[in-house]
Amino acid sequence: MLRALGRSVHRRGSVVLRAAACVRPAAILTPSLQKTSAFSTLASHSLELDASKAYNPEWKPDGFEGGVDTNKLPWIPLPQMQGCSMKPLRVSNETGAFTVLIKMEKGAKQPTLVHLGSSDSYILSGKLTFPNGPMKGSIGPAIWAYTPAGAKLEGTAAVEETEYLATFYGPVAFLDEFGSVKDLLTGFDIRAAAEKRGIRLLPQTLAEAMEPDAAGKNPYTSPGETLTVAKTESAAITHKAEEVAAKAELTNPHFVNTKEIPWIINPDAPDIGLKIMRISTETGVVSAIVRQNGQAPPHYHLGPADFFITSGRIGYRAGPPEGYGPGTYMWEPAGARHEATQRITDEDLIYTANIYGPIQFDSGVGTPILDVLSWMGYLEAAKAFKTPLIASTFPGDVGTLLAKTEI
User: Whole-prediction pTM value?
Assistant: First the structure.
């Protein structure tokens, strides 16, 4: 018997493009929340779902799809950080932000560096140690960390070979022994390295996604290098039900073991779960872990979002019928539309999610807006479930001054 798969689409005029999964708002409602302001914010839990929506993996749209199987990409050495290499995923032409996978060899130590923009990281395998400063401590699989702009890190070391997903919202400056800037790593460097090897970076806007194979010139065709998490289906980050007890406090305010965060689940919709790591009240960005074993209702992303699959498989337009599994990274541009999304195996579909703007729900294209879910709704849910959130700044919010001329 064929399994019914969810359908997920972009719409731009009469053209339809594939899109990725999104959490259903029902995941963050429980009876206890109905007594709070979260009830009106998350009222879309009552939306009826159209189970007849079917994903057709043989359908081939024009344009470049918004996801990449990172296991098919090579590790590219990073000369700025000896013993480190990366897989380029996306670069924003507008802001310079970039997302990469980074691998550190066992014993490798990063030079002293300053984050000129903030960054977040998710450890897939291995173990890193921060010897000093606000980040002091060790982090391993399933740890989500956030580093604010201006942060200075010294001697970050890999205790084991370590792979992690990292998004940098600005350049990284590397310092010499005198504290002067010796080198930089920017989104432009990442783009140049990708283009040199014929690697297609994910399109950042719907307009880019609509260009017929515009990014497909000299595509990368050499063998890729599989992630450790994809080789082993590592239980360390799969967030199964039999987890350690949830904790109400963080041992370090700048990173969290996501397996110790409580699942936010609506008893009436047990197939959808959510773990919230960080909510920025300044930018509205929400970082979360999603367990999506049920169908999501129709919606638009009013801001972009990204996803990284760590467990299970998702139906994927222009992809193989068996879908894509651990190691797949997806980018949804602002304005992306999803009609319905669903896992395609019996295994838990779990992925990380950075949600950069509100999500608007309806019952179909052209129908009235039924709900808009923003960071405020996620914050109400986090409070109701006593979820400890990562801090968005360091103590005192003091950055590192690199300019030689004082203003």
Answer: 0.84
